Amino acid sequence: MPPINLDPITLEDGYPPVDKWHPEYCGTMDMVIKANGEWVHEGQVIKRDKMVTLFSRILWREGEDYFLVTPSEKVQIEVEDAPFQVVRYEESVDEHGQPVWCFYTKTNDVLTLGVDADVALFEYDDALLPYVSVRHGMWASFHRNVFYQLVEQASVVNDGDTQLVQLISAGKAYTIGTFHEM
């Protein structure tokens, strides 16, 4: 299969309108987004961050499947867990004095919790883990260090036999973990 054509797409264009593109399916590409956030093509980790960011901008999800799409091509790739990974965060205060959390992905997405992103708990490898919504039904996992730092700053709220680990952002409470009474 020939390499995917990225000529008309540049990082300066931001997010291309992949939701408006409906190209024919062209097959699969030997590309995997690993659970640790690495993008691997034909067995080799892609080391150029700008290339990974460019690919992330043309990523599309249909059901449980992921594709790289351009106006003329659609190739399926493998995603082990989530296609994006939060690698840092910032807490600030909005104009009303409420805390607002911004998450930054490895591929330069900025996700503002409670404004353009939400958190949900999903099961992965027999653990209930938090993921933040990105776009087009896709999610970002949290790098382990970021997750532990967030837990240290979160509030613990009792909910019956369960303790909820929560962040408050833009006036909304988001559960990033739970503890159960033994």
TrEMBL record:
It comes from Marinomonas gallaica. Pfam families: DUF1285_C, DUF1285_N. The lineage of its organism: Bacteria, Pseudomonadati, Pseudomonadota, Gammaproteobacteria, Oceanospirillales. This is DUF1285 domain-containing protein. Residues 16-82, 83-175 form the DUF1285 domain. InterPro entries: DUF1285 (IPR010707), DUF1285_beta_roll_sf (IPR023361), DUF1285_C (IPR048342), DUF1285_N (IPR048341).
